[in-house]
Design a protein that fits this description.
The protein has 298 residues and is an alpha/beta fold. 44% of the residues lie in helices and 20% in strands. Helix 10 (247-257) runs parallel beside helix 11 (281-288). The radius of gyration is 21 Å and the shape is elongated.
Length: 298
């Protein structure tokens, strides 16, 4: 069973990162994991920093900006504090994606939790945005949190207030997907959630018989993915489903139909969310999905 022991959550104080922080609190609480909250001071956001550099006050300006960022982060954590999870924090300076990736690597993070700007953000093709660049290069799983269709957040402070009741795991039966399955099963256990295992058979308009044969085989393969040592009560909470059609469309449709709280899926290696893959299943689900997505890099 997969265990998440070290979680990194970058914060820029936007509503998107604050929402992600609440999910990070929840996962840390469920797994009894250490939570590291990171804020990155990016000088390009402060035009007067160039003037300070010209005047010879660059180091002092950096110190002031870092101190201000630290005070803001401390205040944020103080107002969002709880007795169940005590986050550790760090303030870095540089380009946010580079700092986040380096910090996660240094901490040997098991998970990065970040917010996305949702459907509109990805509609603008956000290659180069902080979250998207971290997605493409992270060596550990990443939980991308948009604004869920049905908000699970009942409190700003209690990590137990977010409960993932329904998890959807998408598989193509590759080795990548099999490794991601362990995370889906682990999350199901920690949240005592219902888990749906989904495979999508590509629509074959010219061969209905082959399409049906593939669907039948897929149904058996999905059943075989359920661990044999799963007890009867838990098996009742694991269902399988085969759909026919375009993969990302079917995943999104099933997520809506089942009121899914979290989608879990594998990403085919680092860099697979590159621009050339913008039309991929993974990117489309991130683009149009209505719930957070747990991406497992293999």
């Amino acid at each position: 069973m997969r265990k998440l022991q070290r979680i990194v959550c970058p914060i820029d104080f936007s509503e998107f990162s604050i929402r992600a922080y609440r999910y990070a609190l929840s996962v840390a609480y469920r797994y009894r994991a250490r939570l590291f909250v990171q804020h990155v001071v990016e000088l390009w956001k402060y035009p007067y920093a160039d003037v300070a550099a010209y005047l010879g006050d660059y180091d002092e300006t950096c110190r002031i900006l870092r101190k201000g960022g630290e005070e803001q982060l401390q205040q944020f954590l103080k107002t969002s504090a709880n007795d169940e999870v005590q986050p550790e924090y760090v303030v870095d300076q540089g380009m946010a994606p580079d700092c986040i990736l380096a910090f996660a690597e240094a901490q040997k993070a098991d998970l990065i939790v970040m917010g996305t700007h949702g459907r509109r953000g990805f509609d603008r093709l956000v290659l180069g945005s902080v979250t998207e660049r971290v997605m493409r290069n992270a060596s550990c799983p990443l939980l991308a949190v948009n604004k869920p269709l049905h908000d699970l957040i009942e409190s700003d402070k209690l990590p137990s207030a977010i409960h993932l009741s329904r998890i959807l795991f998408c598989t193509d039966f590759s080795e990548n997907s099999r490794q991601a399955l362990s995370h889906a099963l682990s999350l199901r256990t920690e949240y005592n959630a219902e888990l749906t295992l989904l495979h999508v058979v590509e629509d074959m308009r010219d061969s209905a018989k082959l399409e049906q044969a593939l669907a039948t085989t897929a149904a058996k393969q999905l059943r075989d993915l359920i661990p044999q040592d799963t007890n009867t009560n838990d098996k009742c909470k694991i269902t399988t489903m085969v759909r026919v059609g375009t993969a990302y469309r079917q995943v999104l449709q099933v997520a809506l139909e089942t009121q899914t709280d979290l989608v879990v899926m594998a990403v085919r290696g680092r860099g697979s969310l590159d621009l050339a893959m913008f039309g991929s299943t993974t990117h489309r689900i991130l683009q149009f999905g209505t719930c957070p997505v747990f991406l497992v890099h293999v």
